[in-house]
Task: inverse folding
C-alpha cells in the first residue's frame, strides 16, 4: 500500500516538475528573441497534410511556401526593415481534429503571424476560428468549399477559386467545347470532391447534357472495377471525377483497361504530374483537369516561377498547389511588410501588428504567378479565370484546345 | 439492366473474391490455431505488393538498372523480358520471392511480437498485432515512399498487360481475372491437401483443437505455429502482388480495408475453416460487386458489413463452421 | 491527474493515512488547476491546454469503453460509433433549439447525446451480445464502419455528408461565460500574457465530467452490478449458474459504456465547434482500446495515464517545436511528426511483451494476472482443477 502511494506521489511530482521545466523553457526562448540582434524574427506557419492524406499535394505546398520565403529573405526591403522570415511546418494529416491541434500550436508561437494553409476545407473549418481568436492571418492555396468565406472570418483569404466557379466552368467546357452530351459523375465523398462534382453536374444538366449516373467512392479506394462496369452500361461520353489525383488516376486506368475509352475530367486536385504517372500515360492521354488562373507558361511571372522552382528543387516537378502556395505565402509576406512599415518592424508580432497584417492582406493587389492576386470583401480571390488542361500525347498536362 | 451486365459484375466480384479468399486463408489459419486476430496480416498483404513491385522492377525494368547502377542486372533482365519462358519465369520469381520474403517476415513477427504473449490475456496479442500493423505501415511510409506508387515500369508500361482471355457474349474476361481466380483456387486446394493429408498438416489440426494436448503428444507447437505464420502471410503476399497488378498501384495504407473485409470473409465462412474462408471470400466479393453495381457504390461496405452481422446473428458459427460449444 | 480509484482498494483505516490521503487529493486538485493556468499564461505553451482538453475527452471515452472491455470483458472495436452518435445528436438537436436555449445549449444537449449513445448501444447490443468474444469484436467493428459510412453519405439528408456540421455560416453556441471570460480575463504575468481562453474553459468542464464519470464508475464497480460483471468476465457459464442474468448484465455494460461515449461525443463537438465523419474512423476506435490496454484494463488511473500517453505525448513534442518553444528546423519537425507513430507502434508491441497488465493495472486484475504469492497461485490452481474435475464428472454422469 505505502509503496503504491509513494509511487503515486512521485508521479504527481514528476508531472509538476515537467510543467515547471516546460515553463522555464518558454521564458528562456522569450529573452533570446528580444535580446541580442535587432532583427525581428517573424514566423509563417505551413499547415498541410505531410504524413497522411494527400501527401504529394502537401509537400508541394511546403515547397511553394518555402521558396517564397527564401526569396523574400534575400530582398533588400526585408533586410532594411530588419525582419527575418522563417517557416514552420504543421502536419494536419488532412484531419480536422489534428488540424485543430496544429492550429493551436501555431497560435501558441509568439512570433507566428500568418499561416499558409490548409489543404482540406474540413481542416480549415476548425482551424480558422482558432486563428481568428489569435488574430493570425490565414491564406489558403487550396480550399474550394464555397461556404468557408461565409463564416464571417475576417482573417481568412484564399488564392484559389471555389467549387461554384470551377465546377461550372469545367462543365461548360465539356458540353460546349468538347461536345460531350452524356456524363457520369463520381466523387470521393470528401468535402472537396462532393462540392465540385455537385456543381459540375448541376451546370452540365443546365447546359442540356444528360447526367447518366451519380456515384460515390472513397478517397482511399483502389478498386473501381464494379464502377467501371456501371459506367460502361450507362453509355457515358465523359466521366467527371470530383476528388484527388490518386483515386482519379486509378479510375481512369481501370476505365481504359475495362474498355471504357472516354475521357475523365477532374478539378485542380488531379492537375498533378503524379496523376499521369499513376494512370499510365497511355491511359491518361485525353483526360481533362481544370485549374485556376492562366497557364504558368503564359504569364511572365509564371515563367520566372518555373525557373526559380527548377533552381531550388531540381528533382521535383511542379504539383497542383505549388504555385498557389507560392502566391499565398507572398500574400502573407507582403502584408507583413506593409504592416511593418505602418506599426514598426518590432511590433508586427503584437496584437496591433497582427491586426495591421490582416488589414493589409485584405488590400492585397499584386501580379502573382497564377495571375492577379486580390480579394473581394469575403476573402475570395477575384481571379476567376479557369484554364482547362488536357494530358497531351507526350504524357504531360498542357492547356486543352479551346 | 441486361444479363451481360449482371454477368460482368459477377465476374468483377469473383475476381475480388479471389483476392479476399487468399487473404482470408491467412486470417483463418492463424485464428484456428492461436485464437487471435492477426491484425498485422493486412500489412503483410501490403508489403507483399511492395516486394513484388521491387522484384518486378529489378528483373524487368531497364530504368532500374540506370537508377541503381547495378550493371549485372542487364543480362538477367534480358532473359526475363524475352519470350514466354522469360515471362513465366518472371511471374514465378515475383510471386515466389514476394511470398517467401513476406512469409519469413510473418514468422519473425510471430517470434518477437506474439510468442511472448502466448499465455497473456486474450487482448494482449490483439493489441500487439495492432502495434505491429501501425509500425509496418509507418515503416513503409517513412522508408519507402509516402506516395501511391504505380505498379508499372518507370516508362509507364505495365508488367503484365491486360488482355482478353475469352469472351462470354459481350463480356470480356481478362487474363488477369482468370489468373487470379485460378491461382487462388489452386492454392486453396494445395493448402487443403497439405493440412488434411500430411503429417505436419495433422499436427496443425491437432494444435488447433487443443494446443496443450498436442504438445503432450509430441507435436512441436512452436514450429507448427511458425509454419502457420509462414503460410498465411505468404498467401497474403501473393494476394498483394495480384492486387497491385490488377488495380494498378500500391500505397502504405492499402491493406486496411481489404484486411477487414477478408477477416469478415473468414468469419462468414466459419473462422478456422479453410474452405469456409474461400467460400466467404468469393461470396463477399460477389455481394460487394453486385451491391455497388445495383444498389450504390457508396454503400458497398455497409452492405458487406450488414451481411456479416446477419450471418453472425442467424448462423453464429459461419456458413461452414461447426457450432462449437464454448470451452469452459 | 485522477486517482479516485482508491475508494475500491482496501485502506488501512488509520488516521494518519486518511489525513495524508486528504492532503494528496487537495494537492492533486491544486495541481490540476495550477498546471493548465500556468500553461495558458506561459508564452508558447497555450496549446498544451488544448492537448489536455483532447486528452480529457479521450479519458471520458476510455472510461466508458472500460466498462465494456475492462469490467464486462466484451471487446468492442466500434466504440467510436457511440461517440459519433452523441456528437451528431448533440449538434443536430442543439442547432434546432439553440435560439431558445442560448448559452445553455451544450449543457442541455448532454441529455439527448447520452440518450442517443445509450439507445444505440441497446439497439446494437440486443441482437449481437449473444456472440462470443472475437465475433463480437468484428461485428462491432462492422457497426462502427456502417455508422461512419452512413454519416459520410449524408444519410436521410441530416448529416451534411463529409462537409460536416454545422453548415457553413452556422455556429454552435458556446456555453455561458466562455466568451466573456476570454474577452475580459486577461492580464500580464512574468512568463507571458494570461488569457482565460475557451480551451481553458473547456478544460474545466471536461475535468468536471471526468470526475463525475470516475465517481459513478467507482460506485458501480463496488455495486452488485460491478461484481456481476467481474463474475461474467471471468467465467460466463459459472456466473450464469450462480444466477447472474448474463444478457441483462451485458446490456447494462454496453449501454452504460455507450452513454459515456455519447457524452464525450457532444463535448467533442462543442469544443471543436465542428464535426465531420473523418473524426469517427476505425483507427479512433483502436486508439480507445489501446488506451485501456496500455493503461491497464479495469483501472481508472490506468485509463488516465493511457490517454495522456496515446493522445497527449505524440502532440506534445511536435507542438513544442511548432509553437517555437523547441528551436528545431522544419525538417526535424516533419521527422518527429513522421516517426511518432512508428515509435508508438513499436511501444505497443514492447509494452505487451513486458507488461501486458498495463502500466497501472487495476488491483483486482493485477492479482489475477500476477498473483502476489505462491500460495495464492496454488489456491487458484486448485480451484481450477476442482472446476475441471467437477465438470468432467458432470459430463460423464449426466
Result:
Amino acid at each position: 500500500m505505502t509503496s503504491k502511494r509513494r509511487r503515486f506521489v512521485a508521479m504527481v511530482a514528476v508531472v509538476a516538475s515537467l510543467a515547471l521545466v516546460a515553463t522555464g523553457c518558454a521564458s528562456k526562448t522569450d529573452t533570446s528573441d528580444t535580446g541580442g540582434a535587432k532583427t525581428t524574427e517573424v514566423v509563417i506557419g505551413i499547415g498541410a497534410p505531410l504524413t497522411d492524406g494527400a501527401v504529394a499535394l502537401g509537400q508541394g505546398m511546403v515547397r511553394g511556401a518555402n521558396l517564397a520565403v527564401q526569396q523574400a529573405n534575400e530582398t533588400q526591403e526585408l533586410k532594411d526593415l530588419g525582419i527575418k522570415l522563417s517557416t514552420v511546418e504543421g502536419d494536419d494529416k488532412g484531419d480536422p481534429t489534428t488540424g485543430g491541434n496544429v492550429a493551436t500550436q501555431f497560435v501558441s508561437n509568439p512570433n507566428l503571424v500568418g499561416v499558409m494553409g490548409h489543404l482540406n476545407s474540413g481542416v480549415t473549418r476548425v482551424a480558422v476560428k482558432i486563428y481568428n481568436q489569435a488574430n493570425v492571418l490565414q491564406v489558403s492555396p487550396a480550399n474550394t468549399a464555397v461556404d468557408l468565406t461565409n463564416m464571417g472570418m475576417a482573417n481568412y483569404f484564399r488564392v484559389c477559386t471555389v467549387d461554384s466557379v470551377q465546377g461550372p466552368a469545367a462543365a461548360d467546357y465539356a458540353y460546349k467545347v468538347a461536345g460531350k452530351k452524356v456524363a457520369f459523375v463520381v466523387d470521393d465523398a470528401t468535402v472537396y470532391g462532393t462540392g465540385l462534382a455537385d456543381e459540375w453536374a448541376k451546370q452540365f444538366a443546365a447546359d442540356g447534357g444528360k447526367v447518366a449516373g451519380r456515384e460515390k467512392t472513397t478517397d482511399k479506394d483502389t478498386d473501381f472495377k464494379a464502377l467501371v462496369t456501371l459506367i460502361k452500361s450507362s453509355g457515358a461520353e465523359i466521366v467527371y471525377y470530383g476528388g484527388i489525383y490518386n483515386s482519379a488516376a486509378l479510375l481512369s486506368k481501370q476505365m481504359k483497361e475495362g474498355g471504357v475509352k472516354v475521357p475523365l475530367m477532374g478539378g485542380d486536385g488531379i492537375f498533378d504530374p503524379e496523376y499521369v504517372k499513376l494512370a499510365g500515360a497511355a491511359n491518361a492521354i485525353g483526360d481533362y483537369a481544370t485549374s485556376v488562373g492562366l497557364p504558368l507558361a503564359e504569364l511572365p511571372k509564371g515563367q520566372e516561377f518555373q525557373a526559380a522552382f527548377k533552381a531550388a528543387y531540381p528533382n521535383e516537378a511542379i504539383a497542383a498547389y505549388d504555385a498557389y502556395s507560392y502566391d499565398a505565402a507572398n500574400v502573407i509576406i507582403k502584408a507583413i511588410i506593409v504592416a511593418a512599415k505602418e506599426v514598426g518592424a518590432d511590433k508586427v508580432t503584437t496584437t496591433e501588428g497582427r491586426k495591421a497584417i490582416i488589414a493589409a492582406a485584405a488590400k492585397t493587389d499584386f501580379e502573382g504567378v497564377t495571375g492577379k492576386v486580390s480579394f473581394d470583401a469575403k476573402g475570395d480571390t477575384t481571379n476567376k479565370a479557369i484554364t482547362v488542361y488536357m494530358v497531351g500525347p507526350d504524357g504531360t498536362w498542357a492547356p486543352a484546345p479551346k | 439492366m441486361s444479363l451481360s451486365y449482371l454477368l460482368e459484375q459477377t465476374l468483377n466480384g469473383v475476381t475480388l473474391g479471389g483476392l479476399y479468399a487468399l487473404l482470408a486463408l491467412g486470417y483463418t489459419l492463424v485464428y484456428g490455431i492461436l485464437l487471435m486476430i492477426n491484425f498485422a496480416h493486412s500489412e503483410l498483404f501490403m508489403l507483399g505488393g511492395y516486394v513484388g513491385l521491387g522484384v518486378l522492377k529489378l528483373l524487368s525494368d531497364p530504368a532500374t538498372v540506370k537508377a541503381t547502377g547495378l550493371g549485372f542486372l542487364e543480362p538477367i533482365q534480358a532473359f526475363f523480358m524475352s519470350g514466354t519462358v522469360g515471362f513465366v519465369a518472371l511471374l514465378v520469381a515475383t510471386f515466389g520471392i514476394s511470398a517467401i520474403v513476406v512469409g519469413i517476415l510473418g514468422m519473425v513477427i510471430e517470434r518477437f511480437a506474439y510468442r511472448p504473449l502466448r499465455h497473456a490475456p486474450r487482448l494482449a496479442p490483439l493489441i500487439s498485432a495492432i502495434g505491429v500493423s501501425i509500425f509496418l505501415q509507418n515503416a513503409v511510409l517513412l522508408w519507402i515512399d509516402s506516395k501511391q506508387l504505380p505498379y508499372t515500369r518507370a516508362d509507364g508500361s505495365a508488367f503484365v498487360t491486360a488482355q482478353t482471355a475469352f469472351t462470354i457474349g459481350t463480356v470480356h474476361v481478362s487474363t488477369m481475372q482468370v489468373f487470379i481466380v485460378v491461382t487462388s483456387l489452386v492454392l486453396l486446394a494445395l493448402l487443403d491437401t497439405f493440412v488434411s493429408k500430411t503429417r505436419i498438416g495433422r499436427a496443425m489440426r491437432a494444435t488447433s483443437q487443443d494446443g496443450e494436448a498436442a504438445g503432450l503428444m509430441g507435436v512441436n507447437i512452436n514450429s507448427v505455429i511458425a509454419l502457420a505464420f509462414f503460410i498465411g502471410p505468404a498467401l497474403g503476399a501473393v494476394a498483394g502482388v495480384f492486387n497491385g497488378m490488377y488495380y494498378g498501384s500500391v500505397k502504405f495504407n492499402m491493406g486496411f480495408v481489404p484486411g477487414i473485409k477478408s477477416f469478415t470473409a473468414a468469419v462468414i465462412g466459419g473462422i478456422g475453416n479453410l474452405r469456409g474462408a474461400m467460400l466467404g471470400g468469393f461470396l463477399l466479393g460477389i455481394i460487394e460487386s453486385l451491391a455497388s453495381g445495383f444498389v450504390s457504390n457508396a454503400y458497398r461496405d455497409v452492405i458487406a458489413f450488414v451481411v456479416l452481422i446477419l450471418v453472425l446473428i442467424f448462423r453464429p458459427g459461419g456458413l461452414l463452421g461447426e457450432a462449437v460449444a464454448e470451452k469452459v | 491527474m485522477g486517482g479516485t480509484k482508491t475508494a475500491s482498494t482496501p485502506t488501512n483505516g488509520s488516521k494518519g493515512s486518511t489525513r495524508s490521503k486528504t492532503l494528496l487529493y487537495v494537492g492533486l486538485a491544486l495541481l490540476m488547476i495550477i498546471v493548465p493556468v500556468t500553461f495558458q499564461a506561459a508564452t508558447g505553451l497555450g496549446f498544451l491546454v488544448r492537448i489536455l482538453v483532447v486528452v480529457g475527452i479521450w479519458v471520458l471515452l476510455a472510461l466508458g469503453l472500460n466498462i465494456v472491455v475492462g469490467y464486462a470483458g466484451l471487446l468492442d472495436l466500434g466504440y467510436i460509433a457511440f461517440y459519433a452518435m452523441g456528437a451528431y445528436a448533440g449538434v443536430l438537436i442543439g442547432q434546432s433549439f439553440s435560439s431558445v436555449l442560448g448559452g445553455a445549449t451544450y449543457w442541455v444537449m448532454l441529455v439527448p447525446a447520452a440518450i442517443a449513445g445509450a439507445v444505440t448501444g441497446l439497439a446494437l447490443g440486443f441482437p449481437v451480445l449473444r456472440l462470443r468474444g472475437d465475433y463480437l469484436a468484428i461485428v462491432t467493428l462492422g457497426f462502427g464502419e456502417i455508422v461512419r459510412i452512413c454519416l459520410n453519405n449524408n444519410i436521410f439528408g441530416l448529416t451534411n455528408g463529409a462537409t460536416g456540421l454545422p453548415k457553413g455560416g452556422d455556429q454552435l453556441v458556446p456555453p455561458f461565460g466562455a466568451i466573456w471570460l476570454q474577452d475580459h480575463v486577461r492580464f500580464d504575468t512574468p512568463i507571458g500574457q494570461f488569457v482565460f481562453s475557451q480551451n481553458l474553459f473547456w478544460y474545466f468542464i471536461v475535468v468536471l465530467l471526468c470526475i463525475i464519470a470516475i465517481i459513478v464508475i467507482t460506485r458501480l464497480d463496488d455495486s452488485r452490478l460491478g461484481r456481476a460483471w467481474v463474475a461474467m468476465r471471468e467465467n460466463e457459464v459459472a456466473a450464469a449458474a450462480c444466477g447472474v442474468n448474463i444478457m441483462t448484465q451485458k446490456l447494462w455494460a454496453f449501454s452504460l459504456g455507450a452513454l459515456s461515449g455519447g457524452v464525450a461525443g457532444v463535448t467533442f463537438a462543442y469544443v471543436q465547434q465542428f464535426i465531420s465523419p473523418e473524426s469517427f474512423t476505425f483507427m479512433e476506435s483502436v486508439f480507445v482500446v489501446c488506451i485501456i490496454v496500455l493503461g491497464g484494463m479495469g483501472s481508472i488511473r490506468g485509463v488516465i495515464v493511457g490517454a495522456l500517453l496515446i493522445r497527449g505525448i505524440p502532440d506534445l513534442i511536435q507542438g513544442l517545436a511548432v509553437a517555437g518553444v523547441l528551436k528545431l528546423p522544419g525538417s526535424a519537425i516533419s521527422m518527429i511528426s513522421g516517426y511518432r507513430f512508428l515509435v508508438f507502434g513499436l511501444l505497443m508491441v514492447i509494452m505487451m511483451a513486458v507488461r501486458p497488465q498495463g502500466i497501472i493495472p487495476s488491483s483486482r486484475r493485477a492479482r489475477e494476472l500476477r498473483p502476489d504469492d505462491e500460495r495464492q497461485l496454488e489456491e487458484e490452481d486448485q480451484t481450477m482443477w476442482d472446476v475441471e474435475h467437477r465438470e468432467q464428472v458432470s459430463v460423464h454422469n449426466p
Residues 20-36 of chain A have pLDDT under 50 and may be disordered. Chain A has two domains: 39-161+299-369, 164-292+387-399. DSSP finds 14 helices and 14 strands in chain A.
